[in-house]
Design a protein that fits this description.
With 272 residues, this protein is α/β, with parallel strands linked by helices. It has helices spanning 11-15, 24-31, 88-101, 159-170, 194-204, 222-227, 239-244, 256-265, and strands spanning 6-9, 39-42, 63-66, 71-74, 79-83, 106-111, 114-117, 134-135, 147-153, 174-177, 185-189, 212-216, 230-234, 247-249. It has 2 domains: 6-83 and 193-265, Rossmann fold; 88-189, 2-Layer Sandwich (Hypothetical Protein, Haloacid Dehalogenase-like Hydrolase, Chain: A, domain 2). The radius of gyration is 18 Å and the shape is globular. The protein starts with 5 loop residues before the first strand and ends in a 7-residue tail after the last helix. GO terms for molecular function: magnesium ion binding; phosphatase activity.
Length: 272
Amino acid sequence: MKRPRLVASDLDGTLLAPDGTVSPRTAAAWSRLPALGIESVLVTARPPRWLHPLQDIVGAHGLAICANGAFVYDVSNRTLLQSQGIERSLVCELVAELRAELPGVGFAAELADGLHMEDAYPDLHSQWVPADAVRAPMDDLADSAVVGKLLARSMQVPEQWFLDRVAELVGDRAVVSYSGAGGLAEIAAAGVTKASALARWCTARGVDAADVWAFGDMPNDLPMLRWAGTSYAMVNGHPDVRAAADHVCPSNAEDGVAQVLEGLQSSGPGRG
């Protein structure tokens, strides 16, 4: 199989261990890629601030694609370099429509410069809520706010029904993704996915899709896996992801990404 020019990986459920850390084996395999002439990039649903503890594995370029493709973030310097946000008017429109149709729904917005969340939003990751998070209704979003992701969640209805209904109501006005976080609908601007952001990243570096290997585990990874020339689903991943990928690798608990990359590293220079 042809050796890649670039490896792209999701984080949670994929490159990271179940406890959210990078195992020594995975860190070693990932860090050896540059010596093989292979670039790497993290492509994650996480917002920028969630990447700070992972600075050591970002790579020499120091950048990561985050918020499902809405942001390109310089992790080392904690600087946002690129953003593709949802227009504030559309955010307010979607919030009003979803609130009218979905019992108990609460909202939050991952912004270019922080987090805005309603009191009614059932947060799953309180340990990641920054001290300067704005707690106010979504109607109070600043006119200048750059919304990378609008988050919607309800504890009053079945998870899959909620996700399907959000996608139905949003339609083609935005992209609705699911990254495995307890019924959390993640809404991005139309056309913004991990795949679109990774394609721009690769074009800027003269890398064709055929020369990309991508790893993922959840439905929000599907566009990226379908775009990449070679795709790997984690065995612990969503059934739809396993069915769509070219290959299935061992779980993140077993350093599955590292196991695949070690095969590259043991095959010598040139083609693996």
